[in-house]
Backbone:
């Protein structure tokens, strides 16, 4: 049975489908010793041999990890000198990558995996996956209910339309928000428009999975399917 090349790369845990397309276009993928830059390429996994950077690509057992990311850590597979990286917290002998991101100042629930299809199903905007956050403000300010309702309607910022799906006010300085988009630093940009100062931003849920009692910097294997 033929399968698309980018899907096969994702199935093998190389990266997500979208990033696999970048690898193909960059000429880093070979099929049967021939470089292909055609995104429509299909292969027979039982007959064809696929190489990434001249290394044979083979299917691995999928790994799913739930991590409580601490502040101060970056969410990337690229490591930079003098910078703390989430992969340093999950020291396993397998190639994994983060599902989505949290900025360096934020903390909370993050997934790591080598299952590109599963990562795609959680991160592509068309699936509208819910992500819930707890926002702690430095001090109460203005009419928080009115401002949150404005955030529900949506605000244009840097040519992007930012919005929240829903909210729950726990106290004048503590709010839970649900997003279904995935714009960079979306919550921080929304609150900045109303001159709020965020002292803590924590993701507590992605879709049906909750952070629960998992300790900061702790991680565990789980089975999402």
Residues:
């Amino acid at each position: 049975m033929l399968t698309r090349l980018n899907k096969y790369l994702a199935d093998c845990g190389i990266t997500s489908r979208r990033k696999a397309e970048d690898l193909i276009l960059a000429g880093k993928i070979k099929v049967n010793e021939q470089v292909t830059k055609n995104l429509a390429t299909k292969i027979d996994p039982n007959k064809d041999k696929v190489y990434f950077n001249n290394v044979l690509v083979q299917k691995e057992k999928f790994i799913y990890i739930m991590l409580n990311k601490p502040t101060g850590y970056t969410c990337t597979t690229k490591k930079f000198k003098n910078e703390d990286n989430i992969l340093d917290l999950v020291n396993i002998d397998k190639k994994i990558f983060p599902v989505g991101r949290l900025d360096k100042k934020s903390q909370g629930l993050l997934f790591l995996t080598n299952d590109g299809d599963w990562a795609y199903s959680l991160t592509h905007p068309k699936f509208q996956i819910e992500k819930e956050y707890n926002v702690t403000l430095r001090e109460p300010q203005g009419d928080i209910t009115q401002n949150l309702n404005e955030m529900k309607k949506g605000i244009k910022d840097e040519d992007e339309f930012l919005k929240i799906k829903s909210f729950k006010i726990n106290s004048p300085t503590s709010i839970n928000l649900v997003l279904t988009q995935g714009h960079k630093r979306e919550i921080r940009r929304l609150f900045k428009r109303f001159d709020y100062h965020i002292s803590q931003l924590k993701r507590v849920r992605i879709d049906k999975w909750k952070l629960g009692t998992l300790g900061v910097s702790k991680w565990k294997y789980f089975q999402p399917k």
In short: Residues 3-56 form a domain with the Structural Genomics Hypothetical 15.5 Kd Protein In mrcA-pckA Intergenic Region; Chain A fold (CATH 3.10.290.10).
